[in-house]
Amino acid sequence: MSLISRINETTPAQTLSSPEMRRYARHLIMPEVTVEGQRKLKASRVLAIGTGGLGSPLLAYLAAAGVGRLGIVDFDRVDESNLQRQIIHRQTSIGQAKVESARRTISELNPHVDVVTHEIALRSDNALELFRDYDVVVDGTDNFPTRYLVNDACVLLGKPNVYGSIFRFEGQCTVFWGEKGPCYRCLYPEPPPPGSVPSCAEGGVLGILPGVIGVLQAIETVKLILGIGDPLIGRLLLFDALKMKFKEMKLRKNPHCPICGPNKTITGLIDYEQFCGAPAREGPAQEAPQVPEITCTELKQKIDSKKSFVLVDVREPHEYQISKIAGSTLIPLGEIPKRWQEIPQDQEIVLQCKAGVRSAKALLFLQQQGYKKLLNLKGGIDAWSEEIDPSLPRY
Q: Does residue 260 carry a catalytic annotation?
């Protein structure tokens, strides 16, 4: 059953109470919505993948608009660094499960919405069963394995995938729907090389930017439910916040697409971490290659005992200004291939970054240049701040 036909069939059973009529009055007087459209919204079921920067405004506006059931998938917990952009969470939510924090906010915003929480890691063995109960899936994730997983599950089930992504000052939004247009694999047949595209945790993001893209995703979702307007199917909307400009790219269905093309070769979900060569969940323990490591406690002992070694910080200069370990030398990861000869080969070298991922890449590069005495600071300066010097700001 298609999205619109299922909602149309369930609409008559969705009555609006007097409080709901008052709440949605500005919708009801719109000829594109009316009471029938509001009933469609109440009958709809939307699944949001992630309650982060994009999921926050998306969930808030879909709840306010009266989407009947909102499913939320996330297994992360609220961290203080999230609050710069993830506005569905509060200071009092720090340390709590994101799905529960989001559920409370939504319930306070609109008690007429049924919130279903899925505090799980989205995987190949649970995605199809999870997606099957929803009409629209909205992707607010920030890693390639999950994006490919969401896409493939949506194509196999015939579901629309409302996609958004953000980085620094730029964002994208589109609707991937294999039955009616291109899918994510049509745009990106192969994932980028591991580590070639920095995450928001590494590159940063303007805290307001997710609000713009998340709201665009919410608008597209509502249009799909109501069956109105011109959805972003086959169109990729690009937003540049610095220039305050929108651009549009036409997307074509790839006739050779392995999952939505006529000669499809993908008929089930695969191992997406293996396909992308990277884990879905960020974190030094999973992202960093296997390299020789030193713990923060061991590094502190080296410093206190005045042992001879060189500490190289491979973060960016603006990160170095936020916090640094005394005595460290700054050589950003991107400059290592040009400046590696500044690092002495006859001394022990300890490399560090924010969480241990970029410094592991620098270590592997230096190994290729013949360096032998190399150690990577496990957990980076983030762990150092937590375990050794709490006076250093964490970011």
A: no
